[in-house]
Amino acid sequence: MRKDSEAIWRSFGMVDSITIYPLADVHLGAEESAMPAFSRLVAEIAADPNAYVVLAGDLLDAGLKNSVTNVYRATMPPSQQKREMADTLKIIRDKILCIVPGNHERRSVSEVDDCPSYDIASKLDLEDVYRENMAVLRLTMGDRGGHHHNRDYRYNIVVMHGTGGGSHPGATVNRNEMYLGGMDGIDVLIAAHAHKPYALRGSKLVFDIANRRMVQRPTLSMCAGSWMNYGGYPIAAQMRPVAEPGANKLVLHGTRFRFEAVV
Question: Does 149 have pLDDT greater than 70?
Answer without folding.
Answer: no
